[in-house]
Amino acid sequence: DTGVSQDPRHKITKRGQNVTFRCDPISEHNRLYWYRQTLGQGPEFLTYFQNEAQLEKSRLLSDRFSAERPKGSFSTLEIQRTEQGDSAMYLCASSLQDEQFFGPGTRLTVL
Amino acid sequence: QKEVEQNSGPLSVPEGAIASLNCTYSDRVSQSFFWYRQYSGKSPELIMSIYSNGDKEDGRFTAQLNKASQYVSLLIRDSQPSDSATYLCAAYSNYQLIWGAGTKLIIKP
To answer: How many angstroms separate the CA atoms of B101 and B71, rounded?
Structure first.
């Protein structure tokens, strides 16, 4: 399978714990995006990488969220001190230009 | 006004009929538009992209862009029960996609 992959697919954690998600983009894609989606809403942009450089980050994004793409390939998204409001589907997408292709997502539940 | 707006539905269409989904956008987004299909509990799947005024056809799907009226539409011909899903309209702006909330489409056998 040469699509975008994400790990884990599901994560249940207790409030206050840290979590980390991984995304592996389509191999030739230099652009990588993270979005968050809650029920009944469209995805909400979190951050964008071109190669290893983080070029955009949502102003709405708390300092508890951090993302990296150290070698311009896979990316990680870390949420520190999770809150119940962080419960959502976290989506990763990659692209060469405008068309973005999504991975299966990581569903986070914060108890 | 939100940057990208859609009617949340649900839109119910008989099997075999044409489903018409609409999306309006503001001046704050760019002129690249995308339709994604999302099944419940799954991630969005790209169906169509459209960049210029007029129609773009791909199989049973036709995307239409009208820049003067600032709307984008998606037509699905010969609707099948498997087309039942939420359809998300998105506009490309500053490296990110700006999304509508999606229209839930139900195809009735």
So the answer is: 15
CA distance linking residue B100 with residue B89, whole number of Å: 5
Indicate yes or no: CB of A91 within 8 angstroms of CB of B97: no
Please tell me which of the candidates A33, A42, A105 has its beta carbon nearest to residue B43: A105
Q: Cα dist. A32→A68, A97, B41, B88, B91 in Å?
A: 10, 11, 22, 20, 17
Strands (E), chain B: 4-6, 11-14, 19-25, 33-38, 45-50, 54-58, 61-66, 71-76, 85-93, 96-99, 103-108
Cα angle B97-B98-B103, degrees, rounded to a multiple of 5: 110
Instruction: Dump pLDDT digits (tens) for B66-107.
Output: 999 999 999 999 999 999 999 999 998 888 899 999 999 999
In tens, the pLDDT along A45-67 reads: 999 999 999 998 898 788 999 99
In this complex, how many residue pairs, one in chain A and one in chain B, have their CB atoms less than 8 Å apart? Answer: 56
| Chain B residues inside the 8 Å CB shell of A44 | 99
A25 touches chain B (CB under 8 A): no
In this complex, which of B49, B95, B102 lies closest to A99 when CB atoms are compared?
A: B49
Query: Are the C-beta atoms of A16 and A82 separated by less than 8 Å?
Result: yes
